[in-house]
Amino acid sequence: MNRLHPALLYLTIYNPTLCPSEEVSKDDEDAEEQAQILFYTSQERAASRDKMLRQVGLAKALVNFSEIFHPTNSCHNVHSQSRRMIMLNPEPDFWIHAAVELAKTPRTLLPKPKGKGNGKGKGKEKEQASALQPSYDYHDGSLHDFALRARLLRGYEQFKLTHGSFTSILSSLGQEALELQLERFFTVWAWSWDLSKSSELNDDLGLSLHPLYPSILPLLDTFSSQLPAGLDALFLSPPHVVPSTRYRQSNHPPALSRHLLSLIPRHLPHHETDDRPEASSPTEKGATANTAAKEVGSSGNPSGGFLGMPSSLAMSMDVRNWSWPGALTFGKGAERKLPVTEREGIKPNPSVAESTSTVTEVDRGALEDAMSSANIHSLLEKANGGLSVTNPHAAHEGRSEVDHSGDTPRPSRVPSPLPADGLSTSPLEPEKPDRYRQLDFACTFVFLPESDDPLETRRRQVIHLRCLSLAVALIADADNVEDYDTHVISEAASQLLHEVEIMIVAEATRASEILPSATKILQPKDNHLISFDHFTAASPDFVAKSDHLYNGKQLLEQDSHITEVFSRGQQPQHWHVSKRDNTGGDEREIFLEVARKETSLSDVDNILQRLQLHPF
């Protein structure tokens, strides 16, 4: 039977201290209860008022009941046979409540044996109605409480970062404005929550630090020391980050680095086939196919299409054109069809033949600019003041960035940026050094809490300086970027990104030259995940999805006296360790997975000690 994935049933945000804005009858308790609900969305497109009040009332009752036994620690989650109920209290008197249905499998019902007598009347109708209702087997281990809470908390932090805290909006703009902003944000956020994907502990604990974090951090701190006071630097290289020491000391929320990383595109799409207008004539189709073929020949590393062909070339093929001369013959017995003049013995005119065999030339710069103008990232639009690039040299530069993306070796351990040696320059101008390369400049605004009160948020400005896939984000304390010398900052950022790029390429080259031994290839590797200050450092290509690690994390959160959790599975017999470590004064958590069967408990403890001394 097909297994059905978990699904969100409903999501609501309420404040039990709110009162109706208009006078209502004292006997109308439903109106008072409804005034406390700030946001509600359900899997049912039109949920009744009574059902909404019952669901919110149940959540309130569970919280109030749990506070009788634990006044300082209210109810966070409730398990039932078919669902999980999560209660999150991000701000005083504000609650986020979600109900998620577990994964389920339709149950196979065996036919009942026929009896001697057939029932009549209402009893028979009830049996038929119950037989028509489907029955399911629910999978209790398909969801993790920590993963659900972490997802809800990330949603709240994202809203707080882009709009402000619930308390600040309610006090400054009122309840109606708060309800409107919650509706616009959480409706989209709730139904973009993909519960079918398995939870990853890496993502729930924080963003991943760059594999070269120990080497990049001194360069970033040197760059940060050259900045004026009030600017905190954050290095971004999707999907990795490197926070400067000043950035970590400022205690910025974890949602800030995640939000800034989402604004940096991993690749610069040159064009998208979905937005390309369909060619209406064979000449246009031929020009499109020729352009795609030249792109494949220049790149040397086509991406992502059927049989390795790029999507642009695949979409330009038409089955009606397969009968063209030389099409899909693969060099086997292809006969060239002669023109009518040659078959009839008439010698063709050279000038006419030359004109007919020549494909109509198109302005490639204008064509590619038109195709890519709708696909450039919004960050570049902000950098250009909302104007599209019409310079043909800029189009050729963007194409060179994509075409030469496969020249640099890219091992799995260290992600290398797109090389810049293919940038086209004018023959009249000398090629500029890489450190003076022009950066993309953009600004955005976020709401960050004040140091004394986390609920009082203030609008702050963030400066983006990006070159290819590397970027530096500067969180400004001033309200206007013009208060800083942007020219000096841009030169220092360009030099920093140039040095980091050289370091990454050198490490990638060095890693590609090292040949692993047969023992290292065949022997299972020990994988680890270290979390501190909402950032993570993990083994290459390691994604922590084990239930043992999630259970260990939950035990560490439930009791502060628990420092270590060891577990070993049956099939396969892997060791899983969750440990809270305070070595060096910094609190961090270590998660370890050992896949070797012959490993003993003492061997696992030795591996933990090595990780504590050398986490990177």
TrEMBL record:
Location of the CCZ1/INTU/HSP4 first Longin domain: 9-164
Transmembrane residue ranges: none
Pfam families according to UniProt: Intu_longin_1
Residue stretches of biased makeup (Polar residues): 280-291
Stored InterPro entries: Ccz1, CCZ1/INTU/HSP4_longin_1
Annotated segments matching region Disordered: 107-131, 269-305, 339-358, 386-433
GO biological process, one term: vesicle-mediated transport
Gene Ontology CC: one annotated term: Mon1-Ccz1 complex
Biased composition (Basic and acidic residues): 394-407
Family of the protein in this entry: Belongs to the CCZ1 family.
The protein's name in its UniProt record: CCZ1/INTU/HSP4 first Longin domain-containing protein
